[in-house]
Amino acid sequence: MSKKSLGVSCAVAAVLGSLCAGTALAGSLPTPKIGGKLYLDMTNIDWTNDGVKQSKSGTGFDVKRFYLSASEKFDSTWSAKIETDATYNKGQQTDVYIKNAYLKATLSKAFWVQVGDANLPWVPFVEDIYGYRYVEHVLVDRLHIGTSADWGLAVGGKAGGIGAGALSYQLSAVNGNGYKNPTRSKNLDIAGRVDYQLDGLTFAVGAYSGKLGKDVYGSTTYHTATRFDALAAYVGNGVRLGLDYFSANDWPTTQSNPLTSNVKDKADGYSFWASYDFTRSFGVFGRFDEAKTNKDTYSSLKDQYFDAGLVWHARSHVDVAFAYKHEKVSGGGMIHTAYGNVGGAVEGKVNEVGFWGQVSF
Fold first, then answer.
1. What is the pLDDT of residue 243?
2. Tens-digit pLDDT profile for residues 96-105
3. Burial (0-12, 13-18, 19+ Cβ within 10 Å), 180
4. Is the pLDDT of residue 229 over 90?
5. End-to-end CA distance of the chain
6. Which of 120, 121, 259, 306 is deepest in the core (most CB within 10 A)?
7. Can you list the alpha helix ranges (DSSP code H) found in 112-241?
8. Separation between Cα atoms, residue 240 and residue 271, nearest integer Å
9. 218 or 278: which carries more pLDDT confidence?
């Protein structure tokens, strides 16, 4: 290195040192906590609608989700988080969305408030208890009768000392289109949950009401989408058991066609899951769902789903599952599920077998 270059380097170092010293005196910038989660699989899919093989059939490798987050707790009250969600969209490209981006003020254990793009009260709550989101979405998310996050304002908290357990709650006012579409409408949708937990047991109820972001100026929606949720579950001693139920009206879409303004529809369904880790490293799991998504307009249309598999907890934050999944939509018609539009004039079937994994850090 020349003397001139050495002199410039020393000058830059001196300036940076001064800036760093000044920052330290004024109060250092926060250092956020970086985290992430990856869902991936290698499977074979055999999907037919009315006996016709669908394009998603075949063997392949997928990265279904990649979440990257940065969170910071500024003090005992204020915190913030931003999280991105990368997903392979419609076999065309990888899209990156903002899954979470919020500022939160925790005024006490019993009351916090947050504003921005944040988790909704139901889907993430059930996912945490279920434990196998990387294998399959929870019930209402799988059927697109609910989503995990949205843009808006939320309050919540936890109250201890209610008997021997704890009571918690969350109430959110959101745009209604979900975190992938932050557009505004005439009014906000409302979602809420109350749950009670005691010795591994959880009992929860939730509700949602709104126009799903479709009530925009220049158009008319004729119905309000509503949903009621209930959950009973147990987690402890290597066991996970749960029963998740929903009942919905005018979902997943509210009617905006004047010709069908008097047409209403109902849906309901349940999901039962069970898993058991017989060692710290290995376990088994299974699940069964059944739902009717159009009870008034297509009363015979029904969705059934089940899975079963073995799981290897390879190390902390790394899980690998070998599983078989089956979905059947019968009764004449299509249901938009996590796979896509399954069904037909008679029935649609999806069989999938392979490996699923999650890595978190």
1. 98
2. 899 999 999 9
3. middle
4. yes
5. 41
6. 120
7. 123-130, 139-142
8. 13
9. 278
> Distance (Å, rounded) from C-alpha 187 to C-alpha 330?
36
Local confidence band at 161 (pLDDT 50, 70, 90 cut-offs): low
Residue carrying the six token digits 């926060």: 30
Sign (positive/negative) of CA torsion 39, 40, 44, 46? positive
Average pLDDT for the chain:
88
C-alpha to C-alpha distances, 343 to 208, 264, 283, nearest whole angstrom: 27, 21, 33
Q: Are 114 and 71 in contact (CB under 8 A)?
A: no
Cα 143 from Cα 147, distance rounded (Å): 10
Q: Are 144 and 336 in contact (CB under 8 A)?
A: yes
pLDDT at 12: 33
DSSP state of 127: H
Q: Which residues are CB-neighbours of 195 under 8 A, at least 6 positions away? A: 125, 167, 168, 169, 202, 203, 204, 205, 231
Q: Is the dihedral of CA 172, 177, 179, 182 positive or negative?
A: negative
